[in-house]
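Quick one, probably user error.
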């Protein structure tokens, strides 16, 4: 008989955001990393990273503008 493949559980927006944030910070538990690797799709990481990077750059620019004004 053919094996029926289990459908992967997809990661939520919150899980992707949390994984990207902790990756930016450089701190990850091995168990969390393995769990994320099972659930998060590569395109979710790319989109989350781009959005996270954009938010980071805009935040830095706003802080610099606020301090220099």
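Nope, works fine. Designed sequence:
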């Amino acid at each position: 008989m053919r094996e029926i493949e289990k459908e992967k559980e997809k990661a939520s927006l919150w899980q992707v955001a949390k994984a990207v944030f902790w990756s930016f910070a450089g701190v990850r538990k091995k168990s969390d990393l393995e769990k994320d690797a099972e659930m998060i799709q590569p395109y979710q990481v790319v989109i989350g990273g781009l959005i996270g990077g954009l938010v980071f750059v805009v935040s830095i620019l706003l802080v610099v503008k606020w301090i220099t004004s």
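The two ends are 71 Å apart (CA to CA).
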